[in-house]
C-alpha cells in the first residue's frame, strides 16, 4: 500500500481505518456507511475498491478478522476490526493531514491565471456556467447536512460537509464579484481595444 511523502496511507485506507476505529464492520457495511455519510465524495472508490483495500490493510497487519458469521443459508460474513498498529497509523495520518497546509494545484487557479487569453465575454459565459454547477453542489451539500441533522446524526460525522459548504459559498461569492468586475470592464482584458498591456508589450520580430 502506497504512502504519501509524509507517510499517510491513501484516502480509502484512511476511511476504512476510521470506520473500524468506531466498531468492527463487514466490508459492505463500511461501503454503505460511507455512502450514507456521503464520504464517497472524499475519495474515488467503488464497493470493489473497499474490499481490495480491506485485503491490503489486513495483509499489512493494520486490521484483523474479528469474527466470521453466517445467517441461515446466506454466505459467511467476515467482520474486521482495527489493530493497535492500525490505530496508530490512523492517528498519525489524521495528525499529519489536519496540521499541514500543502501546496496544491487546483485547475481553477490555473485557468484563472490564464483566463485573460480568452475573450472577455467567453470568460463571463464559462464562469456563469461554473456558478450554476457550484450553486447546485452547494444546495446538495446543504440538503445533506439538513437531512443528517434531522436524523440526529452527530455533527462529528459530517464536519467535512460543513467545510465544503463554507468553501463553496466563499468561492461563489468571489466569482460573483469577479463577474461583475469583468462585465463592468473594471478589469483590463487583452481583447480590449485600448488595452494598455498590449501597447506596452514588446512586439515579436515577425510583427515588425
Overall mean confidence score, pLDDT: 89
Query: If strands are numbered along the chain, what order do they take across the biggest sheet?
Result: 1-2
Q: Rg to the nearest angstrom?
A: 24 Å
Count of DSSP E strands? 2
Number of domains: 2
InterPro entries: Tscrpt_reg_PadR_N (IPR005149), WH-like_DNA-bd_sf (IPR036388), WH_DNA-bd_sf (IPR036390)
Organism: Gordonia soli NBRC 108243
Domain Transcription regulator PadR N-terminal: 16-91
Protein name: Putative PadR family transcriptional regulator
Structure description:
The chain has helices at 11-22, 27-36, 47-59, 84-99, 107-114, 120-150, 159-183, 196-200; strands at residues 63-69, 77-82. Strands 1-2 form a two-stranded antiparallel sheet. The protein contains eight helices and two strands. It folds into two domains: 11-99, Orthogonal Bundle (Arc Repressor Mutant, subunit A); 107-200. The chain starts with 10 loop residues before the first helix and ends in an 8-residue tail after the last helix. It has 208 residues and is mainly alpha-helical. Helix content is 58%, strand content 6%. Strand 1 (63-69) and strand 2 (77-82) form a beta hairpin.
List the keywords.
208 residues, mainly alpha, 8 helices, 2 strands, elongated
Give a brief rundown of this model.
The chain has helices at residues 11-22, 27-36, 47-59, 84-99, 107-114, 120-150, 159-183, 196-200, and strands at 63-69, 77-82.
Amino acid at each position: 500500500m502506497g504512502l504519501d511523502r509524509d507517510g499517510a496511507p491513501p484516502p480509502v485506507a484512511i476511511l476504512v481505518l476510521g470506520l473500524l476505529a468506531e466498531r468492527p464492520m463487514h466490508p459492505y457495511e463500511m461501503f454503505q456507511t460511507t455512502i450514507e455519510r456521503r464520504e464517497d465524495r472524499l475519495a474515488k472508490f467503488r464497493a470493489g475498491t473497499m474490499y481490495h483495500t480491506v485485503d491490503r490493510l489486513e495483509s499489512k497487519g493494520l486490521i484483523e478478522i474479528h469474527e466470521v458469521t453466517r445467517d441461515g443459508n446466506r454466505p459467511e460474513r467476515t467482520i474486521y476490526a482495527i489493530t493497535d498498529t492500525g490505530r496508530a497509523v490512523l492517528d498519525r495520518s489524521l495528525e499529519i493531514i489536519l496540521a499541514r497546509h500543502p501546496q496544491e494545484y487546483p485547475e481553477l487557479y490555473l485557468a484563472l491565471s490564464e483566463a485573460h487569453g480568452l475573450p472577455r465575454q467567453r470568460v463571463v459565459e464559462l464562469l456563469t456556467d461554473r456558478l450554476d454547477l457550484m450553486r447546485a453542489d452547494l444546495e446538495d451539500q446543504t440538503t445533506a447536512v439538513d437531512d443528517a441533522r434531522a436524523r440526529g446524526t452527530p455533527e462529528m460525522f459530517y464536519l467535512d460537509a460543513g467545510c465544503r459548504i463554507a468553501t463553496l459559498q466563499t468561492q461563489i461569492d468571489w466569482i460573483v464579484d469577479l463577474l461583475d468586475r469583468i462585465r463592468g470592464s473594471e478589469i483590463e482584458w487583452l481583447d480590449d481595444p485600448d488595452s494598455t498591456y498590449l501597447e506596452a508589450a514588446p512586439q515579436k520580430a515577425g510583427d515588425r
